[in-house]
Design goal:
It is built from five helices and no strands. By secondary structure, the protein is mainly α. 23% of the residues are buried.
Length: 142
């Protein structure tokens, strides 16, 4: 039974990677379709917003799958996972809005808060996952 639940946890990382590949494809498609209907006016924010799910999702979770096989058993893993994914999503939405505003020829002071909140979520998720588990590992070592 333990092997079965272990296999489910490992396949969840695979599902996450596949989901991020799909999200990257969708976000890239949205940016290309939007540029066609914006009379070929481009925005760096819009053109490169696919990098957030590509690097923050596919690359990071592939590294986690390769090097941290038991991460699903860490304390606060699921909460950290959800906050991290929300951070990546917040960065994508912030980039999308910045791109839309730039293409429309206007700006907003509020789009910078998407980047701030997204980065705070990602940093908090990393600390939430690492700090309790490093303490536990330190206590086991001594």
């Amino acid at each position: 039974m333990i092997l079965y639940t272990s296999d489910i946890k490992k396949s969840n990382l695979t599902k996450t990677i596949i989901t991020y590949i799909l999200i990257t494809t969708i976000v890239y498609s949205i940016s290309k379709i939007y540029s066609v209907f914006s009379h070929n006016v481009n925005s760096v924010f819009m053109s490169l917003m696919f990098l957030y799910p590509l690097i923050g999702g596919v690359l990071i979770f592939s590294i986690i799958k390769l090097f941290f096989k038991n991460i699903c058993h860490y304390k606060y893993y699921r909460l950290s996972y959800n906050i991290y994914n929300s951070g990546v999503g917040t960065l994508v939405v912030g980039s999308l809005l910045s791109g839309i505003f730039e293409i429309a020829g206007t700006s907003s002071n509020f789009t910078k808060y998407y980047y701030i909140v997204g980065l705070i979520q990602i940093i908090y998720a990393i600390f939430l996952l690492l700090i309790p588990n490093l303490r536990r590992h330190a206590n086991l070592s001594s």
